[in-house]
Give the backbone structure.
Amino acid sequence: MTAVRRAGLLCSLALGGCVGQPDHFYTLNTLPDTTRVAGAPMIHVRLQVTIPSLMDRNEMVLYTSRNGIVILDHERWAAPLADQVTDTLARDIEGKRGDIFVGDRGFDRATTPSVTIKVDIVRMSAQRGGRASIEAHWRIVDSSAGVDELGSGSFEAPVTGDDAAAVAQAYSQTLSDLAGRLTKEMRRR
């Protein structure tokens, strides 16, 4: 074998080693998918959400034990997880109450009541074949009604499969449950 062929073979083997497992991408989804009732009076909600820095990465993170985690290099979120959590929670809130519109800017009209909901997700964890859970603290501020309420809760959903898609589905369910709790807190006023 000539030196050129040997070098070519070594390069091919080296490049072949770089080609590995393909990446898979996941999204969070609103549950259940609902449609808005046209003509309902609207309350404008500004939603601010934070998630733990451990989870705010492209790769999916799973807990293996109370103190152990695994970072799944090839199981990735399709968009930044903080953005997906905020968007999914916003759409879930809208779906559970037809009189709410969640948006950040451009809705500051005197005729549109405005409420601010700040959600701090302090723990977000999932285990394959186990449960996904979120623990959250929130603050609901409606200055026009003189309301400033604090609350907290934990939300869990089963991870019904052994794959990353089941984890994404379980997180979607926990966010839907959180949205239900937030809309109940707003109804109490």
